[in-house]
Amino acid sequence: MSTVKLGATLFCYGTEYARYEYDFEECVKQAALAGATGYEIVGTQMLPSYPNVSDEFLGLVQRLKAKYGIGPVGYGANNDKGMMHDRNLTDDEMLADTIIDLKAAHKLGCKVMRSQYMLSPEAFERLAPYAELYDVRVGIEIHNPESPLSPLMRRYLEVIKKTNSKHLGFVPDFGCFAIAPNKAHWIKALEAGVAEEHLEMAAEMRYQGVPLEEAREDLLAKGAHPAINAALQGMYGFVQFKPKSELSRMLEELKEILPYSFELHGKFHYLGEDLVEPSIPYPEILEVIKASDFDGYLICEYEDELYCGGTEFTKRQLSMAKSLLEVTE
User: What SUPFAM superfamilies does the annotation carry (predicted)?
Assistant: First the structure.
């Protein structure tokens, strides 16, 4: 039986933070008010001295933990190959950057660090002794358009099994289970002048596997507003979706990688008052989690594509998760 604790990434409040409506303390306060028992901090977003953690900031984190009852449980690392203008970073450079992130996570007291798959499987393997030294479990985020056992993720699974390290694993992002179009992108397209019938055509083409350029040409030829290009880019990119018929296969893949998963990222793009995410099948996903032996945090992650702020949506997400997981605390 699973033991799931509920948290939130402070990235949920990125819009409020960027607009100077919230400072770091207010983000922590709002996460606590929403019902989170711990939070993830994305270093590049909220560490004033990134990539390092200053003693001053650490003191603030500790004071806020005493004040609001929650502290950092996860660290969102930065794995950016494109930091040089003329080339990608090498594996050695990516590994060095990731070790710096490990030090930051360790100083903050985080036991889990979320890394992206720009950190190659080869560099990930070499990270094992450093993760063990700092006692921080590093999970490669399984992010859309990947799925739990896509070819790339299988390479990471091979590394995890080869090293037999308890400090290398996964962080599944629920966005990879999407089976319908992103509602936030859909709303923005409608507001930009795209007809709903053309969006429905675009979604059907994506379900059928029509190539992107072919879908674009077909839709524009049928008179679709040019703003449909942005929606199409999402449908074929990082918010793509699969037919519902593939959900059972993906959930079986989730079951296979859960024993190697340190944290769950509860990605969501829109949540109405009915507490239903239109594109991500939360009831089915969380049923798998409930029946598993997973022991860790489900971190709520709101992607504010509508730029309306994450305060209310984060409350809704945690409320939905509590209900579906039957969490009583």
Answer: Xylose isomerase-like
Residue whose structure tokens are 């400090």: 167
Report how far residue 144's alpha carbon sits from residue 174's, in angstroms, rounded to the nearest whole number. Answer: 8
Low-confidence spans in the chain with pLDDT less than 70: 1, 328-329
Provide the pLDDT for residue 2. 77
Cα–Cα distances (Å) from 248 to 170, 179, 243, in that order, read 20, 11, 11
CA atoms within 13 A on the CB side of 238: 8
* Cβ proximity of 108 and 61 under 8 Å: yes
Q: What pLDDT shows up at residue 244?
A: 96
- 261, 170 contact by CB (below 8 A): yes
For the chain, the C-alpha Rg in angstroms (whole number) is 20
Same domain for 113 and 46: yes
pLDDT value of position 28? 98
Separation of alpha carbons 29 and 31, rounded Å: 5
Domain count within the chain: 2
Q: Last residue of a domain, which of 236, 260, 275? A: 236
Task: Please answer whether residues 298 and 6 qualify as being in contact, where contact means their C-beta atoms are separated by less than 8 angstroms.
Answer: yes
Q: How many residues does the chain have?
A: 329
Question: Which residues form the domain of 188?
Answer: 183-236
Query: So what's the pLDDT on residue 329?
Result: 56
Is 162 in the same domain as 101?
yes
Q: So what's the pLDDT on residue 78? A: 87
Same domain, 58 and 108: yes
- pLDDT for position 247: 97
> At which residue do the structure tokens 């990947």 appear?
146
Pairing of the two strands 112-115 and 295-302: unpaired
DSSP assignment of 257-316 = HGGGBSEEEEEES---TT---SSS-HHHHHHHHHTS--EEEEEEEE--TT-S-SHHHHHH
Gap between the Cα atoms of 142 and 177, Å rounded:
10
Stated as kind and residue range, the H or E segment containing 232 is: helix 228-235
